[in-house]
Amino acid sequence: MAAKILITGGSGFIATNYIHQLYSSSDFEIVNLDSLDFPICAHNHDELDPKRYQFAHGSILDQTLVAELFQKHKFKQVVNFAAKSHVDTSISDPGIFTNNNIFGTQVLLDAAVKYGVDKFLQISTDEVYGSLMHEDPSTTELSPIQPNNPYSASKAGADCLVRAYHKTYGLPVVTTRSSNNFGPYQYPEKFIPVILSNALNNQPIPVYGTGMNIRDWIYVEENCRAVEHVRQHGAIAEIYNIPGHREITNLDICKTILKVLAKPESLICFVEDRKGHDFRYSMDGAKLERLGFKINSTFEQNLEKTIQWYKKNSHWLMVKQAVPLKQ
C-alpha cells in the first residue's frame, strides 16, 4: 500500500502546482484538505486519478475533521501550505490571519504529534524577515524574523510554533521560506494576474506609491521543485530559504508585462501606498544550493510561459477581484 501524504491548502496557487508535481513524480496517495476560499480552485485537480488523490473540504481550524483525517489515513508526512496570505486583507482584518495561520497550524501540529508523522513540512515566506533597504545584505536562515504586517506576523508565529513542537515534543519538522511566486493558477487578485487582466482589457493598472518597492520573484514550478527537494533531502529542524534570484521593482515588472503585451505604459495608475509597505525582500539561497538544488530556468522564460497560460485560461482573469491587489 502506498504511503499517504496530507497537503493542506492544496487547491491554492502554489500547492496546486506542487500537487501536480508530486503526483507525477512519486507514488504517494495524496489527500488535499482545503476550505476552497476561491471556488474557481475547486477543479484544479480534476484530471488526477481518485485512486491516488482525494479531496477533503474543510478548514485546518476544524480539530474534529483534522483528527478524523489523521486517524483514517495514517499520514506518513504533512506539507502545510494552508494560510490566509493577502497582506491588504490582513491589515483590515488581522484576526482572521492570526486565527487561521497560527491556531490552524497548531491544530495540524497537535494531530501530527498525536498520530505520528515522519516529517512535517511548514511552508513559510520571505516576508517574516521584514523589510530591507538597497544596501542591506540578503537575509539568511539565521537572520532575525522581523515581520511588519499582520500576515507576515502570523506566518512568523506559525514558524515559531513549528520550531517549538520539534523542541518540545520531538516532532520532525522542516520549514521553507520562499520569495514571491508567479505562474499558473495564481489568484486573480495578486499583482501579476491583475496586471495581465487589466492590460488585456485596456483598464488602469494600480501600482502602490511610486512603484519602487522591490520583490524577488520565483516561478511557481521552480519553487515547488525546491519544496520537493527539501521534503526529500532537508534535515530535520532546519529552515531553507528559496529565493528566485530575480529582484525587480513593482514598476519594472509592470512595464515588462506591458511591453510583452504591446500595451502602453499610460495604463499604469499610481495609487495610495499600502500601510507599512515593506520596501525590499531578498534572501540568500546558499544553504539550499548546498543541499543540491538550483533553479534551471530564467525569469524571462517563465514570465512568457505565465502570460501564455493566462491567455489560454482567460476564465482565471475573469473572476471578480474580491480584495485589492497584493504587491
CATH topology annotation of the largest domain:
Rossmann fold
Q: How much is the average pLDDT?
A: 94
* CATH class descriptor of the largest domain: Alpha Beta
What is the string of SSEs from the N terminus onward? EHEEHEHHEHEEHEEHEEHEHHH
Helicity range:
25-40%
Widest sheet, order of strands? 3-2-1-4-5-6-10
Number of strands: 12
**Helical run tally:** 11
Shape: globular
Residue ranges: pLDDT <50 for 5 or more in a row?
320-325
Overall CATH architecture of the largest domain: 3-Layer(aba) Sandwich
Main pleated-sheet profile: 7 strands, parallel
Any idea how many domains?
2
First-last Cα distance: 44 Å
Strand content: 15-25%
The radius of gyration over CA amounts to 19 Å
Structural class: alpha/beta
CATH superfamily of the largest domain: NAD(P)-binding Rossmann-like Domain
Describe it for me?
The chain has eleven helices and twelve strands. β1, α1 and β2 form a beta-alpha-beta unit. The chain is α/β, with parallel strands linked by helices and 327 residues long. The longest helix has 22 residues, at 94-115. The N and C termini lie far apart (44 Å).
